[in-house]
Write a structure and sequence with these properties.
By secondary structure, the chain is α/β, with parallel strands linked by helices. It has one domain: Rossmann fold. The protein is built from 7 helices and 9 strands, in the order E-E-H-H-E-H-E-H-E-H-E-H-E-H-E-E.
Length: 205
């Protein structure tokens, strides 16, 4: 099996397939993603989320903010299972979604844990990390604000954020409060989308 041109092992494919079955089951009673995207689950959500690990395939400690239906946090945790190293802390304050995430991690034997708390409380509970991810959560300025407790003054902590066609405006807005190094990774799934890699974060105001 291939995702975005990356060869995926049989074990990882089985984990992803089992996650997809679980997701479809839970999505019947919990609003995990926009209903209009459910029929395109593999491309719009699983393949899209897998790009995070493809960009940064290191066995580091991740913090996934607003994990929702598990994108990209559970997908990253599934890929880390093959490495037998690294960990994903999934932060999701909605307790029904948190219950789904716990079930998904347990049944796929993925390397992650769930924190059913608000993002603002997460740093005190989780501590330091090497990478942060978020998808469909907030604009870039808001995401950097959420990530700042982990990233400010930490050269080795990077943020990886999915963004759509309006990402240039979001970058301009974020530069009003922050300085940071930026890499733009073009999406292999959505033509006008990118994954923004943020590092060396500094506060301006």
């Amino acid at each position: 099996m291939e995702l975005n041109g990356l060869r995926v092992s049989r074990e990882t494919q089985e984990r992803l397939s089992h996650f997809a079955v679980l997701f479809q089951k839970w999505a019947k009673t919990i609003n995990l993603v926009a209903p209009s995207t459910l029929d395109d689950l593999w491309r719009r959500h699983i393949a899209d989320s897998s790009q995070i690990f493809q960009i940064h395939p290191e066995p580091v400690t991740w913090v996934d903010l607003g994990s929702g239906g598990g994108f990209p946090g559970v997908i990253t945790a599934i890929f880390l299972a093959e490495l037998q190293n690294g960990w994903v802390h999934l932060v999701e304050s909605n307790h029904k979604k948190a219950a789904f995430l716990r079930t998904a991690l347990r049944e796929t034997d993925a390397r992650g844990s769930v924190h059913a708390i608000r993002i603002e409380e997460a740093h005190a509970e989780i501590g330091e990390c090497g990478a942060i991810s978020a998808r469909a959560l907030a604009d870039l300025d808001g995401l950097i604000g959420y990530s700042a407790p982990w990233m400010l003054g930490k050269e080795n902590c990077r943020g990886f954020f999915h963004k759509g066609r309006d990402y240039l405006r979001e970058i301009d807005k974020a530069h009003g409060r922050w300085e940071f190094d930026l890499l733009e990774h073009k999406s292999a799934v959505e033509q006008e989308s990118v994954i923004l890699e943020i590092s060396n974060l500094r506060r301006l105001v």
